[in-house]
Amino acid sequence: MAETALVIAAHPDDGEFGAAGYSAQLAARGWDVYFLIATNGAKGTEDRSMPRERLIALRREEQREACRRLGARDVFFLDHEDGELVYTRVLLEQLVRSIRMLRPHAVLTHDPTDIIIRDSFINHPDHRALGTAALDAVYPTARDHLNFPEHLAEGLEPHRVREVLLWNTNQPNFDVDIEPQVDQKILALSAHLTQFGSLEDFAAFSRERWKSEDGRYVERFRRVELQF
Fold first, then answer.
1. N- to C-terminal Cα distance for the chain?
2. Structural domain boundaries enclosing 183
3. CA distance 75 to 186
C-alpha cells in the first residue's frame, strides 16, 4: 500500500514554493500526494481590472494544473477568504477531516513559529494561522477519537501522522536535494500565470532562490518525526 503525503497550504502556489521538489520526489517514488488549499486566492493580483470571481476561478485551475505537473493525485480547496484566514474551530475541523480522510504518513505545511523569516521577509498572517491550525490538527486533534466524534459516524477514524515537514523555517534540520526536480518545480510554479508571468524571467529568479551556498538546489524543512 502506498504511503500518503498531504501538503497543506494557505494559498494557491504556496505549496509549490515550499515543497514542490520534495512532493515530486515522493510522487515519483509511488507515494500518493495530495494538496489542500485553505483560501480562495482572491487577493493575489495587482491587476485592478481583474474581476474577483474570475481570479478565484483562474487560481483554482492554476493550482490543479500545478498539481498535475507534480504528479499529485488530487487537490482540495477550503475557500476561506484570502488575507483573512483565522484559526477557528471550523478551520480545525476541516483540517482534521482531511487528515482522517486521506490518512497521510507525512504532512507538509507552513512553519508558523516566527513572524520574521531569515531576516528577509514577513511570514504572511494566513501562513501563520494555517500552520498553527495544521499542527494542532496533526496533534492531538486528529489522533484522539473524542475530538469531533461526529467523524466516527461518517466512517472517519482517528489517525496518527508520523512526520511533519515545515517550510519557510528559521530552524531547518532537513535538506532535500531537488537538483533532479528543479525544472519540474519551476514548471509547476509557472502554471500560476496570474502570479508569475513569463516562464523565462520566473525560471531565472527561481533558480537563484533555491540554490544553496554550495551550489546545490535544495528545499529546506524543519522535520518533526512524531513519536506518539
1. 22
2. 4-225
3. 19
CA angle 191, 213, 125 (to 5 degrees): 50
Confidence of residue 199 (pLDDT cuts 50, 70, 90): low
**What's the Rg (C-alpha) of the chain?**
17
Q: Report d(CA 3, CA 33) in Å as an integer.
A: 9
Instruction: Report the predicted TM-score, pTM, of the whole model to 2 decimal places.
Output: 0.96
Tens digits of residue pLDDT in 150-174: 999 999 999 999 999 999 999 999 9
Residues sharing a CB contact under 8 Å with residue 218, sequence separation 6 or more, in sequence order: 175, 176, 177, 178, 210, 212
Distance (Å, rounded) from C-alpha 134 to C-alpha 99? 10
Domain CATH for 216:
3.40.50.10320
Cα angle, residue 132 at apex, residues 61 and 196 outer, rounded to 5°: 30
Containing H/E element for 174?
Answer: strand 174-177
Which residue's entry shows cell 500518493?
Answer: 32
> For residues 107 and 142, is the Cβ–Cβ distance under 8 A?
no
Q: How many structural domains does the chain have?
A: 1
**Integer Cα distance of 220 and 18 in angstroms:** 8
Strand 174-177 versus strand 218-225 pairing type: antiparallel
